[in-house]
Design brief:
Helix content: 10-25%
CATH topology of the largest domain: Immunoglobulin-like
CATH architecture of the largest domain: Sandwich
Strand order of the largest sheet: 1-2-5
Number of domains: 2
Shape: elongated
Distance between the termini: 62 Å
Radius of gyration: 30 Å
CATH class of the largest domain: Mainly Beta
Strand content: 35-45%
């Protein structure tokens, strides 16, 4: 008796699948064996670029005699968007202008119209530095 009920239940499910399932399928296009979804670009999933709202101000590099370089300054979020993460990137150069290192500093959740006082440390004593941009999202 249980086997009969089980068999009739399976039969009903298969019947429902063919009746209901086929009615929700998209119409078949003549000459096409399969239907393809529309192309999706990675930019469909990315938020607008708000990096232009970030501003680097009052940045300085100094060496404290320990063999390290420290870059300090302030990053301003001048926009109306909270950044989940902001990273300021720098290259470090020796007295001859050769790049000897790179460094960065990062912070999470930088709110609109707020600033962040950062410190980036290099393990090499440099003479100059260059700001290389923000990574931000």
């Amino acid at each position: 008796m249980i086997a009969g009920a089980w068999l009739s239940g399976i039969t009903a499910i298969i019947f429902m699948y063919f009746i209901i399932g086929t009615s929700f399928r998209p119409p078949h296009e003549p000459g096409s064996e399969t239907m393809s979804p529309p192309p999706i670009s990675p930019s469909d999933f990315l938020p607008p670029d708000h990096k232009a709202d970030l501003e680097l101000v009052d940045e300085h590099m100094f060496n404290d005699g320990s063999g390290y370089s420290k870059i300090t300054g302030t990053v301003m979020n001048n926009g109306d968007h909270t950044f989940s993460y902001v990273e300021a990137k720098f290259n470090i150069y020796d007295a001859e202008g050769n790049q000897i290192d790179s460094t960065s500093a990062g912070i999470g959740n930088l709110e609109p119209h707020h600033s962040w006082a950062f410190k980036a440390i290099s393990f090499k004593a440099g003479e100059t530095f260059k700001f290389k941009g923000f990574e931000a999202f």
